[in-house]
Specification:
This protein is α+β, with helices and mostly antiparallel strands. The chain has four helices and five strands. It has a single domain, classed as Alpha-Beta Plaits (2-Layer Sandwich), CATH 3.30.70.3250. 22% of the residues are buried.
Length: 118
């Protein structure tokens, strides 16, 4: 027996944040997932973070300068919690004894529309 797909009226509405990451040490997608979850849990707590429906959809390595590595990523979150996720990401400032800066450069309702910011 096949599982039924939820109709669009019953699905969760998502928003996609395009973020820019500048960090002193190189990271992977798994490291970035840990950074996101850690900053959200520290700022909002476990009960609130469970409602965010966070997921890293895409992770791109951009160019490396002398001082830092640059990455861009698309992060999915639930529609009502965009401001909480943005504030938690902005508060992340250290990872593995190196400085990190995460800024939101775009917000959209689809992955395709969020890729125009990359």
């Amino acid at each position: 027996m096949k599982l039924k797909v939820l109709p669009p009226t019953l699905r969760k509405n998502n928003r996609y944040l395009t973020v820019e990451i500048k960090i002193q040490t190189p990271i992977t997608k798994d490291d970035f997932v840990n950074i996101i979850w850690d900053s959200c849990v520290r700022f909002q707590g476990e009960a609130n973070t469970a409602n965010f429906n966070l997921w890293v959809m895409k992770f791109y390595e951009m160019d490396k300068t002398e001082k830092y590595y640059s990455y861009k990523s698309i992060v999915r979150c639930q529609r009502g919690f965009v401001d909480e996720v943005r504030s938690a990401l902005a508060l992340a400032n250290m990872y593995n004894n190196g400085k990190i800066a995460i800024t939101t450069i775009g917000l959209s309702g689809t992955i395709k529309a969020s890729q125009k910011y990359i």
